[in-house]
Design a protein that fits this description.
Blueprint: H1 8-16, H2 23-29, H3 33-36, E1 38-41, E2 44-47, H4 55-67, H5 70-79, E3 105-106, E4 109-110, H6 112-131, E5 144-148, H7 155-163, E6 173-177, H8 182-189, E7 197-202, H9 209-224, H10 232-235, E8 236-240, H11 243-249, E9 256-258, H12 275-281, H13 283-302, H14 309-323, E10 328-333, H15 341-353, E11 371-376, H16 385-390, E12 397-402, H17 412-429, H18 433-439, H19 447-457, E13 465-470, H20 475-495, H21 507-521, H22 531-542
Parallel strand pairs: 5-6, 5-7, 7-8, 8-9, 10-11, 10-12, 12-13
Antiparallel strand pairs: 1-2, 2-13, 3-4
Helix pairs in contact: 1-4, 4-14, 7-12, 7-15, 12-13, 13-20, 14-20, 15-20, 18-19, 21-22
This protein binds 6-O-phosphono-beta-D-fructofuranose.
6-O-phosphono-beta-D-fructofuranose (F6P) binds next to loops.
């Protein structure tokens, strides 16, 4: 594997970065820039013209993808090769949404039938619950479902459920518990009736401390309200790959939905981990979500790089990370239902590419995964857009907005759109000193003050952004959108020569946390750790400052 920074395209890009005019000039030079730098795929429209990129830039970035053997890596993933090399696992979240019936082999076993069987089991379970056939320990139908999980076993279902609120069937309410902080589950259980509450315990490993603790608390809550041990089976189902531990906990094996090693946690909402989503929106809409993702999969697997939405977004973001020193990317969702999506993309990308060791064990000598952050528009304009416009760093922005609202009242949506598009324009063109001074010409300020204030009003512009549009936020377009970002993350991991599908970095904290827990529970003060850890532990043990 050639060193990334020695690839011909990388060296050429290093020189090329000096050649990029201000975006204002790029637009002035090419009246067709918008038409030439936008494309549609899987129900999404991407305008990537507001980027610091010329035809040569794009050509070199696609050459870098080619020199990185991206096509080979894409084919290997879809084929089920064990590209998660450190765990010797395939990466097949794409198979979860491929209803073509095509065989996909993992260790010579076709996984397609089990995927379909699990979807059927989900449908039967949901029908039993929503029809009232599934009853609790006092014979009542379920009214509330509490999903217990964390990380990939929580955030996808939570964010997608929130995003598809217009599609909720209304049969049951759904609540999400993740944090081990007792406040989380306490607040969620307040007001729920144990007789009509069903817990979905989502944990691929069935070994995550937070999830186990919350599940035990949920079980205790049921028992405290009159349920017997044998009633637990009526109020718990599990989504896990660890059937033995789930059965040992007291969950009826027939109420266990499978998780597979070839699905990574942060890529798992398409599996039975998505049960809370399907419970809320129904299986037809859940299958539409899968179908939307599948459309993006087909686009990603077949489109030439120059017309490949995930590849274009990945390579432009990498351009800023590795050649402009951008430390973060911001995702701005101009749709209230999508307010949770930036956090989801944060987990997806940062747990995938926040790494420094390459596939062959070398340490990188280039930047890898940026910080992913963001929030809903227009709120961000009153919070952090100041820094986006006038801060010292370069923070490439993705703006996401549906053309039609689910709630088309008054002037709201057109004003939302005006803000979204206005922001991308301001980031691109900025405002020069001369323009600032001219705007102050009629003010009562004296000339010296006008000159000073004008300096404060200068905005450099040349701040890159992508704008992603869809007709409407539906299960289909949401599925395509999430798959787009999954593949964007994958492409960057390939170029950076990383394994995007393990997460060794989360292990040490868990191990040390278990040791700290023992010290916190000990009757003796902690003395053998560093002074800070000892001090903090002993303050907690004494319970007061
Ligand atoms: O589903 P599990 O095994 O409880 O793991 C929960 C989460 O913890 C991690 O392993 C580490 O954050 C994630 O990858 C995963 O989604």
């Amino acid at each position: 594997m050639t060193k990334l920074t020695q690839l011909p395209s990388w060296l050429a890009l290093t020189d090329h970065v000096q050649e990029i005019p201000h975006m204002r000039d790029l637009f002035a030079q090419d009246s067709q820039r918008f038409d030439n730098m936008s494309l549609s795929a899987a129900g999404l429209f991407l305008d990537y013209s507001k980027n610091r990129a010329t035809d040569k830039t794009l050509s070199l970035l696609f050459q870098l993808a080619k020199e990185s053997n991206l096509s080979t890596h894409i084919a290997a993933m879809f084929k089920g090769d064990k590209i998660n090399t450190t765990e010797q696992r395939a990466v097949l979240h794409t198979a979860l949404r491929d209803n073509s019936g095509k065989a996909t082999l993992v260790d010579d076993i076709n996984i397609a039938p089990e995927i379909q069987t699990t979807l059927d089991k989900m449908a039967q379970f949901i029908d039993a619950v929503t029809s009232g056939r599934w009853q609790g320990y006092t014979g009542k139908k379920m009214t509330d479902v509490v999903s217990i999980g964390i990380g990939g076993s929580f955030l996808g279902p939570k964010v997608v459920s929130q995003a598809l609120r217009p599609y909720w069937s209304g049969h049951v309410n759904c609540h999400f518990v993740a944090n081990v902080d007792g406040t989380s589950i306490s607040e969620k259980l307040k007001g729920l009736n144990p007789e009509t509450t069903l817990f979905l315990m989502s944990s691929k490993s069935f070994g995550t401390q937070e999830t186990l603790t919350n599940t035990l608390t949920a079980k205790a809550w049921l028992l405290e309200h009159g349920a017997k041990q044998q009633d637990v089976a009526h109020h718990f189902v599990a989504i896990t790959s660890n059937v033995a531990k789930a059965t040992e906990f007291g969950i009826d094996p027939k109420n266990i939905f499978p998780m597979w090693d070839w699905v990574g946690g942060r890529y798992s909402l398409w599996s039975a981990i998505g049960l809370p989503i399907a419970m809320l929106i129904g299986m037809d809409n859940f299958k539409a979500l899968l179908a939307g993702a599948n459309k993006m999969d087909k686009h990603f697997a077949s489109a030439p790089f120059e017309e490949n939405m995930p590849v274009i977004m990945a390579m432009l973001s990498l351009w800023y990370t590795n050649f402009y020193g951008a430390q973060s990317n911001v995702v701005l969702t101009y749709d209230h239902y999508l307010r949770g999506l930036p956090a989801y993309f944060q987990q997806l990308d940062m747990e995938s590419n926040g790494k420094t060791t390459t596939l062959n064990g070398a340490s990188v000598d280039y930047s890898t995964g940026p910080v992913i952050w963001g929030g809903e528009g227009t709120n961000g304009q009153h919070a952090y857009h100041q820094l986006l416009h006038q801060g010292t760093g370069l923070i490439p922005a993705d703006f996401i907005m549906p053309l039609q609202s689910h709630n088309p009242i008054g002037e709201h949506h057109i004003q939302l759109a005006s803000n979204c598009f206005g922001q991308t324009q301001a980031l691109m063109q900025g405002r020069t000193y001369e323009e600032s001074l001219s705007e102050l010409s009629s003010s009562s300020l004296n000339e010296q003050d006008k000159a000073l204030i004008a300096k404060h009003k200068v905005m450099p512009g040349n701040k890159p952004s992508n704008t992603l549009l869809m007709d409407k936020l539906t299960p289909d377009t949401l599925g395509a959108l999430i798959a787009l970002y999954e593949h964007r993350t994958f492409v960057q991991g390939v170029i950076w020569q990383l394994n995007s599908f393990d997460q060794w970095g989360v292990e040490l904290g868990k191990i040390l946390g278990n040791d700290v827990l023992e010290r916190l529970e000990s009757s003796k003060p902690s003395q053998t750790l560093d002074a800070s850890s000892n001090g903090l532990i002993n303050l907690f043990r004494q319970g007061t400052l």
